[in-house]
Amino acid sequence: MTDTAVELETVEPVESAQLGQPAPVSDDQLVAMLVERARSERLQLTGQGGLLQQLTKRVLESALEGEITDHLGYEKHDAVGRGSGNSHNGGRAKTVLTDVGPVEVKAPRDTAGSFEPQIVKKRQRRLTGVDETSHVAGGSSSAVMRRG
Predict the structure, then answer these.
(1) DSSP one-letter code for 15
(2) Where are the beta strands (DSSP E) in the chain?
(3) How far apart are CA 128 and CA 118, in angstroms?
(4) Is the pTM of this model over 0.70?
(5) Which PANTHER family does its entry note (predicted)?
(6) pLDDT tens digits along 51-92
């Protein structure tokens, strides 16, 4: 058996940012970045137009877009949807009452009208947490709420 010497070149690890991809961010880092941005823009945390209201809007709209994408089976503007018989058909603005106040969201629609969103259902004006809080504030006990 013959020994062979092989020279190995040391390779430095490549950060995801070097590949054109954003580096992973922890939840704590993300929150710190959002709060710092709000401070620099003199944005309130709560209230009309505040950080929490804006975040709630973006989270709800993102979830709704995810739901319609799952329903249709393809991403918005994807060529796969051409001629499929059902596709994205814009959306309708609606105001939803949330724990952080009223939030206007754009609810997506499909051409066939078969999309039934779950995160914010059709004709729903309040999110569940707000409804339950309203019952308790109105004097209903949790036992009464469970009975329906």
Answers:
(1) P
(2) 88-98, 101-110
(3) 12
(4) no
(5) MUTATOR FAMILY TRANSPOSASE (PTHR33217:SF8), TRANSPOSASE FOR INSERTION SEQUENCE ELEMENT IS1081 (PTHR33217)
(6) 999 999 999 999 999 999 999 999 998 988 888 889 999 999
In Å, how far are 27, 49, 60, 100 from 53, measured between CA atoms? 18, 6, 11, 6
How far, in Å, CA of 68 to CA of 92, rounded?
A: 13
Nearest to 108 by CA among 126, 92, 127, 85: 92
Residue found by looking up tokens 């009208």 in the block: 113
CB-CB contact of 130 with 99 (8 Å): yes
What is the spatial distance between Cα 100 and Cα 130, in angstroms, rounded to a whole number? 9
Cα–Cα distances in Å, from 88 out to 61, 64, 91, 114? 14, 12, 8, 11
d(CA 72, CA 110): 8
Residues 6+ away with beta carbon under 8 Å from 67: 108, 115, 117, 118, 119
- In one-letter notation, the amino acid at residue 87 is S
pLDDT tens string 5-31? 445 444 455 555 556 677 788 989 988
